[in-house]
Every structure is written in C-alpha cells, then in structure tokens.
Amino acid sequence: MMRGEVDESIPFDPVIHFTVSSISKNHLNPWARGTIETGTGTGFVIPGRRIITNNHVVSGRDATHIQVSRHGKPGSFSAKLLCTSPIVDLAVLTVEDAAFWEDLPCVDFQMDVPALHEHVVAVGYPLGAESVTVTEGIVSNVKMFDISLGMGQETLCVQIDAAVNPGNSGGPCFSMTTGGLVGVVFCGGGGENTNFIIPTLVVKQFLDVFERTGTFGLLPSLGISYQRLVNPGFRRLCFGGTMPSHHNGVLVDGVGKFGCSAGKLKKGDILMAIDDNAISEEGDVVFRGSEWLPFNFLVTQKSIGDTVTLRVLRSPSRADDPTAPREPAELHDITITLAPETTWLRLVSGVDYFCGWAMIGGFVFVRSGYPLQVSVGGSASLQLGVFAADWMDSVYPIENMTDEILLCQEVVAHEINMGFGPRGETLSDRGLVLLKFNGVRVRNLMHLRTMYEECKSPYIELRFISVIDKTKERVVLETAAVRATESEFLSQLVMPHWWGSEGEPSPTVVAPPASTAITPAALEALAPPASHPPASPKTTPTSPKATPTSPKTIPSSPSHGAKPGAKPHKPSKPKQQH
After folding, report:
1. E strand segments, 238-306
2. How many CB atoms lie within 10 A of CB 424?
3. What is the DSSP string of 497-527?
4. Which end of the chain has fewer CB atoms surrounding its CB within 10 Å, N or C?
5. Share of the chain above pLDDT 90, in %
6. CA distance linking residue 387 with residue 552, whole number of Å
7. How far is residue 469's CA from residue 485's CA, in Å, rounded to a whole number?
8. For residues 401 and 258, is the Cβ–Cβ distance under 8 A?
9. DSSP 236
10. Residue 27 contacts residue 347 (beta carbons within 8 Å)
11. Do 351 and 218 touch, CB atoms closer than 8 A?
12. What is the distance of C-alpha 383 from the center of its chain?
C-alpha cells in the first residue's frame, strides 16, 4: 500500500473520546489538597466491554470523574477505572450503562510487532477535535524505552514518524496493511516527528496480569547489574586468560541483596544465555532474526512469579579478579523465579509508594519516592533528596523491604529549633535525610511515629545526613517544648495532625503525655558512639542501558501527551489534552 492511502478496513467506530477531571496528590504537602485538573484524550474498545487508554490520560489513580463518548454518536457516559499502571502507561476501564455498548465493535489485535518501515495510521482526537483525526507514518525503530519518563523501568516500544498531537494519547494505531491494532499511541519522550506506540505485546501482558491478579504492579527484574565484555583485554581475563571464539557473555558485577537472584548469582559470574537465547558481549539478544534488543526484554515479557533459566559460566574465584589464580570455569543452568526490583526508591503511587508525613518540632518529614519528584518544583535539595536512594544503601544499608527514606521537606523556624546547621544557612536548604531518633535507626514513617509517641526522654535527638554534601547534622530538642508547640506548628502549616499516611487509619488527636524533668545527664546519655565518615556515593543500575535517573531530570509540563511534570500548587488548572 502506498503512503497516503488509508485502507478502508481501518475501524473508527471503536475509537472513544475521553474527558477527565482529577485532583492530583500533593506529595510535597500530602496533608493538603492537590491541584484540580481537566484533560482530554483518546481510547478504544476491546473485547469484554472494556476500553484501553493511557494511564496519564486518566490521571492514574487521581481521577475524580471520567467521561467517555463514542465516535459519531451523541451522548456522554461515566466510565469506571478497573486498572492502571504508569510503568507501562496503560489503563483499562468499563462503562456500566448498557446503552453505551449497543452495536459497538471492538478492535482486532495484531500480536506481531510491526516490521520496520511498515505503514501505520494513528487515530485520535487531537487539538480539541470533535471527530476522529487520522495521521499516518512508518515504523522507524523498535527498542526498549522508559515509557514512564523517569522511573527507569524499560519496556518494549515502537517508534513511528506519524504526526501525533495533544489529545492523541491513548488512541489506537493500526497497520495500514492488515487493519489490525498494532499498538497504543504514546506521545512524549521523542524529538520532532518522533513518537511511540505501546505494542500489543505489552498491552496483552498488561491485560493478562490484570485478569489474573486484579492489578498491575512493577515489572519483573533479575535484580543484578552487569558489565559489557567488549574490551579485548578484559574479555580475555574474564574467560580465564584465553580469548573465546564467540562474542557472547556479560559480567555480573552486582547482585541486589533482596532481589530474586540473591543467593543464586554471584559477582564475577558470566551470564551467557537466558532461556536458551544467547546474550551478546554487549548485553543484547536477537529479536526477529536480525534485530537486537537488551536481554532485559526477555525478562519484562514475563510476569512476577514466572521463571527464567540463566546459563552462567562460573569460576571458583571471581573471573574479573586479575590477582586470582586462573581456574577452569564451568557452565551452570540456574532457574530464577522473577520478582520486582528492590531498591530504596519507591516508584508507583498506591503500589510501592504511599504519601505520608510527620512533623516534630517544626521539622516536616515526607516519604521519598518517584511520585514526590513531580511535586518538588525548583527545590534543588529536594530534587537530590528524591534520588538519595542512589547512595543511601552505601551509607546505611537497607535491612528490610519496609525501610523508607524520610526527607526533611521543611523546617518551620521557631525558637525551639533555632541555631542548628552551618552559620548563615537554614536546615531546610540542606536536603536532610532522617537517620536516627534518639540513637535508634529510623526504619520508616510508622517507626518514627511510634518512637515519638512513646518517647519518655526529656530530649529528642534527630540525626541527619545532607544530600547536598553528605555531611551529618545533629539536632537536639526539648521534648516538653516540642509537645507544647505542636498545635502552633499545626496551625501555621494548616496541618490536621502531626502525622498522616495514605492507607493508614486517620489519626485521632490525643493529649500529649506529661513532660519529664530535663537533666544534663539525660542529654549526655543520648550521645551515640562516634560516627564513621559517610561512604562514597554508589549507584548500582540493573542494566548499563537503563535510563539514568539524574537528580537534575524533572519531567516538564505535558507536551504531545506526556505525563504531567512539576505542578505548582494552584486551586485549578485549565483543560489539558493528552
């Protein structure tokens, strides 16, 4: 078919128009109401009286009302969100009104990933259009890409050169040859004339997991980092001093403590194959005979709880250690049950991240996580704090998967907390991560809450580490003064209670315990042993090709359907198109 000729088999009736109202969570001030927004986008009908669109079209889990309308038909209907995921930027919905589904056809899935240079057509409601608009293009690339634009979890994407505008997001992309659905339009992340579709392979996986579990969480991961074996000298070393005749194998140089490969893979292993697919020295596997994709593609095509078989070349001593004796290596087939990657950095609101806060003596703490990133605005210290996970484990190793990073979001100036930090600076500019409360390592927000509520000491000692320069800070407050001024701070911050957490019962106000007499001996007893200098920052990516999460990278405002970026705290926003 020649470019410019749209096949008559392209279906338009299943294409759905979305109008969405939402109140986004304010992760920076989680006790306050977020921003009110409205936006429009596109979706399409699939079997089972369901509609597919992008997660960002329906504002993730923050939508307050979703309204849909059919192509060429009058009337609007309320839609119900069934499942959504920012990781793959997909959402599935239904409409309970039976009238909506009368004579409404579904799209036909084409499960094969479209070939390079295959002609495709994107259908949607861009730029405020009231009827469907068609743009065509060709497939220019197939690659792994971070659809979430920052979470670092890559999935399969198809790059197209079709013109895509705000409002197209979530719409169908059809093959001009077969008329079958080849993907969901995803707008954003590319340059001029560069847009992406989420292929039906990923859509089917999303639906399969939802139908089996009722939700869709994180993608599976081996929980390892690796190094390419391209350099001839290093490659010869890792293969026992002899250059192999093949160009396969990558070096395992990190195994996550809580990942699914812990106890099965080791540093120094050479990863040769996954499920009988050879892994090149670059870390790629063959795709469709002559194309290449990172081997993580094969991992992400599976679900949590599925297994993979890894072929590993293992020496008695580490293969990459030049001082170790050269001993014969053996091949091992190791079965791994897949699980999500485990890191300090929480990614998905409502899945592994739940907004929450605590306020003690004017120090306001919030949970660190990727959802916080869109709320930090121009605060450089908080931007860095969101990514404190990159080096936190080297300073205070994570010991339990309930551990959290608590950032000091703000310090409300008061006579009870004055005089701490470097002269001429305020503590709120230091980018502080809370480490200890009265000498005890703070594991998470609920742990901090318990220690504060049960505190009988006349003093409260808070130990921090700065994300700016990794120096440590110490703050000592009088417990009686902290409790006596609590209502004053709450009034200034318009905060309903000194703590709160999404998913936890609403706290009730209780009378503070009677104060204890303050003695110098009590303060002396709080002094912990001399601390060691903080370790150097260390990042352990799961893949050298993974999208880096630089603390300077903050998603911009929505463009061509990209997900919302940093949001100022305003009472309302005009309608947006996705």
Report:
1. 250-255, 270-274, 277-278, 284-287, 291-294
2. 5
3. SSEEETTSPPP---PPPPP----HHHHHHHP
4. N
5. 55
6. 10
7. 31
8. yes
9. H
10. no
11. yes
12. 15
CA gap 403, 346 in Å, rounded: 10
Residues above pLDDT 70, as percent of the chain: 78
**Around 134, how many Cα atoms within 13 Å sit in the side-chain half-sphere?**
16
End-to-end, the C-alpha distance of the chain in Å comes to 30
Alpha-carbon distance of 85 to 155, in angstroms, equals 13
As a whole number of angstroms, the distance between CA 271 and CA 209 comes to 28
Q: How many CA atoms lie within 13 A of 453 on its CB side?
A: 15
What angle (nearest 5°) sits at the alpha carbon of residue 221, between those of residues 218 and 223? 125
pLDDT tens for 227-286 read 999 999 999 999 988 899 999 999 999 998 888 999 999 999 999 999 999 999 999 999
Tokens of 94: 């239904």
131 backbone φψ class: left, alpha, beta (φ>0; ψ -120 to 50): beta
Decide: 292 and 205 in contact? Cβ < 8 Å: no
Nearest of 151, 138, 147 to residue 54 by alpha carbon: 147
Read off the amino acid at residue 240.
G
What is the mean pLDDT of the segment spanning 458-466?
94
User: Quick one: pLDDT at residue 324?
Assistant: 73
- Separation between Cα atoms, residue 153 and residue 341, nearest integer Å: 10
Q: Which two tokens stand for residue 211?
A: 């139908």
Identity of the residue numbered 202? V
